[in-house]
Design a protein that fits this description.
Blueprint lengths: L1 H6 L2 H13 L2 E2 H14 L9 H12 L4 E7 L6 E7 L6 H4 L4 H16 L5 E2 H7 L10 H13 L3 E4 L2 E4 L1 H14 L5 E2 L6 E2 L2 E3 L6 E3 H8 L20
Antiparallel strand pairs: 1-3, 2-3, 4-6, 5-6, 7-8, 9-10
Organism: Erythrocercus mccallii
InterPro entries: Nse1, Nse1_RING_C4HC3-type, WH-like_DNA-bd_sf, Znf_RING, Znf_RING/FYVE/PHD
Enzyme class: transferase
């Protein structure tokens, strides 16, 4: 890493450190941070060059099998950035932070979310899994605590007792999810990234993120599927 540090500018290094400490950073925050790092380090700053700045960091990270990846929040369509470890496949990244029983609860929660119609799992359904775990049974109180930690650590997000995968989790685990849930995991027909919370065409089965649905059907009098042209039967947001 000292070799890598020699090639990376202080601005690059500072940006990377903050990103890593946050786990995930929203686009507008990343842009502010980009500016701050360049100004602090007194290097040339161009407001529209964030992606180039990140590419430069990524070229240094490549030998370490790491990468800053951009992803989209399924909720509002905003860009987010997270540092992904490409060498650690599957849930190994989490294995150092959680016990085996916690990981089993996470995997089972992930199953529920991905196999669901809308990309959410209710806390009731998740807590019912707690006493069916193979590692050892978990009390509901304990399971509630563990779910809270997964939300704090940005693996899950929760809204009114319904859980879904956090944007950070989707960015970091996209490949894992696509290869482990081949039959059900789908990419958004519009932005081509993994869609967990999505609307699905009744006729041909393609899925679209809600923000992508919103954008795609804006100004169309009658929403029709971009693939099969059948009437889009979901309530468009």
């Amino acid at each position: 890493s000292t070799m890598m540090a020699a090639q990376m500018t202080n601005a690059h290094r500072r940006f990377l450190q903050v990103l890593m400490s946050h786990g995930i950073t929203e686009g507008s925050e990343a842009r502010k941070l980009h500016r701050h790092c360049c100004e602090t380090d007194k290097v040339y700053y161009a407001h529209d060059k964030l992606d180039d700045f990140i590419s430069a960091i990524n070229s240094h990270l490549q030998p370490l099998f790491m990468q800053i990846r951009k992803g989209i929040s399924e909720d509002d369509g905003r860009a987010h950035y997270a540092v992904v470890n490409l060498a650690e496949t599957e849930v190994t990244k989490m294995a150092s932070d959680y016990t085996e029983i916690e990981l089993e609860l996470f995997r089972k929660t992930m199953d529920l979310i991905i196999l669901s119609e809308n990309g959410f799992a209710s806390s009731t359904d998740i807590l019912n899994l707690a006493d069916q775990l193979k590692t050892k049974k978990m009390k509901k109180k304990e399971a509630e605590q563990v779910l809270k930690v997964f939300v704090e650590d940005k693996w899950l997000s929760e809204k009114n007792g319904e859980y879904t995968l956090h944007t950070r989790c989707i960015i970091e685990m996209e490949q894992y999810i696509l290869s482990n849930y081949q039959d059900v995991a789908r990419k958004c027909n519009i932005c081509h990234s993994l869609a967990i919370q999505s609307q699905v065409c009744d006729s041909c089965g393609i899925g679209m993120h809600l923000p992508c649905v919103r954008k795609y059907f804006r100004g169309q009098t009658e929403p029709r599927c971009p693939k099969c042209n059948e009437f889009w039967s979901c309530d468009t947001p």
